[in-house]
Amino acid sequence: MNNIPQIKIGIVAVSRDCFPESLSVNRRKALVAAYKKKYGDRDIYECPVCIVESEIHMMQALEDLKRADCNALCVYLGNFGPEISETMLAQNFDGPVMFCAAAEENIGVLSGDRGDAYCGMLNASYNLKLRNVKAYIPEYPVGDAEYCADLINGFVPVARALVGLKNLKIISFGPRPLNFLACNAPIKQLYNLGVEIEENSELDLFESFNKHASDKRIPEVVKDMQKELGKGNKKPEILEKLAQYELTLLDWVEAHKGSKKYVAIAGKCWPAFQTQFGFVPCYVNSRLTGRGIPVSCEVDIYGCLSEYIGTCVSGESVTLLDINNTVPYEMYKKDIEGRYDYKFTDTFMGFHCGNTCAARLCSPEMKYQKIMARSLPVEVTGGTLEGDIAAGDITIYRLQSTADNHLYAYVAQGEVLPVATKSFGSIGVFAVKEMGRFYRHVLIENGFPHHGAVAFGHYGKAIFEVFKYLGAERIGYNQTEKYSTENPF
Question: How confident is the model at residue 71 (pLDDT cuts 50, 70, 90)?
């Protein structure tokens, strides 16, 4: 995944001047040793310049973090901590910040070497709010060296998403298709998040595509596609055009990154795309997403933003699916009930035409787009990658601007069941506990569109923390207790 950042977290210990500095020094050393033993030393840096007790120390620590190329920070309270300089450190650091604190090691420290970091964390959080400084504070932020090492490791995927978003450009082509206003949302929240947006016409894309007609790299890309598809290569006659399109997108990305390091694409895929380009772009979208460059369907800008968050958090490919159709009750009774602990209303099918990368599908095959072929010649609808999505854990989530520029989000964990869909497209039988109520009181109630980003694994904890850090006003999730909008009778 070359399209996501590598995180290097600087560990800076702080100390209140009326507490022994040695407490913070020794506890920092123990923390770093525990982290390196368990997780290696690639993404951690121990700031040895000073223990921060004052503003002068804070400035020295910032310089050291900058020299070490740290793009994330852990402020570690080895004792009570200096509430002013430690929060100024967070305020002035150019990147995501977390706070955690040391627990007392044993009975022996209580008589003379007590650190009181449990108390200091309260003052730190209060001062962060006074300064309007965002910071990640774990659910229980105080512990011994091994415990805090785990906390820091849990911060890595959160930091990776936050650093990635700050350096992200979304490139879009064309307006949403007719009757797909659900994918439309104001772009102001992108700027609030630090994300850049470049909106283009699909005519610009078509011009660039035509200029790539004789690109000498096309045969090499076709060969790679043939290798990936194997026996699933059911439309070999369109591979050259698909390769031409893939090169068009990749060249556009390199030429248009500008000041940003990372890119995601919101692409046009219908209705005129097929007749003019001569194919559908689903397979190419799947290939780029598999490499860490999410490409959303139907110019879904917040969809590709969400996909990129999941790519950063998981470090792996994701997909974007319609929360699409009910599982037939006949299928539920035959293949699910009694085998899996899910109610009928916990199940649904996640689907898209063919945009999920081959590695996530069972027996993927290149086919044509059945829905589009109902009103268009079949020969211009080839290019979908079809297959049942492989069984396993998933997280479905989305970050979305509302029409009036509020930032909402949702996240729910579940799984794709090993149940044959007997359908078409990139599709799977999904199961999420309390999905029926989540569907009504989070998705419908808050006006979320039909597209949901899907990460392959349980990443709800990290994604929730990303949404919280970004300032999402509402973060919905599937819950057993009553929703505020749920009829109590």
Answer: very high
* Encoded tokens for 245: 């399109």
| Residue 5 backbone zone (phi > 0: left; psi -120 to 50: alpha; other: beta) | beta
User: Taken in order 90, 264, 309, 45, is the CA torsion positive or negative?
Assistant: negative
Number of C-alpha atoms within 13 angstroms, CB side, residue 90?
Answer: 29
With tokens 């368990």, the residue in question is 38
Total Cβ atoms within 10 A of residue 91: 16
Q: What band does 373 get if pLDDT is binned at 50, 70 and 90?
A: confident
Distance CA 5, CA 72 (A): 11
Strand, helix or coil for residue 62: helix
Sheet holding 97-102, edge to edge: 44-46, 9-14, 72-77, 97-102, 142-143
pLDDT of residue 182: 67
**Angstrom distance (rounded) from CA 460 to CA 411:** 6
Q: How many H-runs (helices) and E-runs (strands) does the chain carry?
A: 15, 18
The alpha carbon torsion through 180, 368, 385, 216 (nearest 10 deg) reads -100
d(CA 170, CA 155): 25
- DSSP single-letter state for residue 69: T
Most distant CA atoms of the chain, gap in Å:
83
The 10 Å CB-count burial string (b at 16+, else e) for 383-393 is bbbbbbbbeee
Query: CA nearest 466: which of 251, 162, 229, 238?
Result: 162
Contacts of 24 (CB under 8 A, 6+ apart): 13, 14, 15, 51, 76, 77, 78, 79, 102, 115
State yes or no: pLDDT of 320 exceeds 80: yes
User: Distance between CA atoms of 476 and 7, rounded to whole angstroms?
Assistant: 28
Determine the Cα–Cα distance for residues 439 and 433; give it in Å rounded to an integer: 11
Alpha-carbon distances, residue 55 vs 86, 329, 396 (angstroms):
8, 65, 43
Decide: helix, strand or coil at residue 76: strand
